[in-house]
Amino acid sequence: MQMTIAILEDNEDRIRVMSDCLADKFPFFQRRFFRSAPEASAWLERNFTTVICLALDHDLEPVPGSAPEYDPGTGRDVADFLAQRQPQCPVIVHSTNVPAAMGMELVLTDAGWSVTRVTPYNDVEWIAASWLPAVREAIVQSAAVAHSASS
Length: 151
Known about the structure:
Elements: E1 4-8, H1 12-25, E2 30-34, H2 37-47, E3 51-56, H3 75-83, E4 91-94, H4 98-110, E5 115-118, H5 125-150
Parallel strand pairs: 1-2, 1-3, 3-4, 4-5
Helix pairs in contact: 2-3, 3-4
């Protein structure tokens, strides 16, 4: 079973850079991007056991071409969804909305999830400098937990 790095992100530039970084450093993992909280939550409901790392942005814009009344939700919606479930993998919260990111981190850690918070800076520079090392650490953590569970 191929493991997945799942990412809630709506910014095309960020998605492109994240995908390129992951393809370069972790080509053996599937990459799955979501542009809305409902889409991410629905997929996670069916695929939790395949996720090795989950990254969540907070502020989401409507999907281009979607109906004007369509609400993409927020990363907090996914964090609240996760908080009602048994922790499955490490979560990385990445958002320039620091108060909202702190709230996501709090609700997840209170529910027992392992959370790292990364604050974006300099357009997409932070992805390779801060976010990718956090993903690497999350994967190492997931592998260690899986190994100890099987021992």
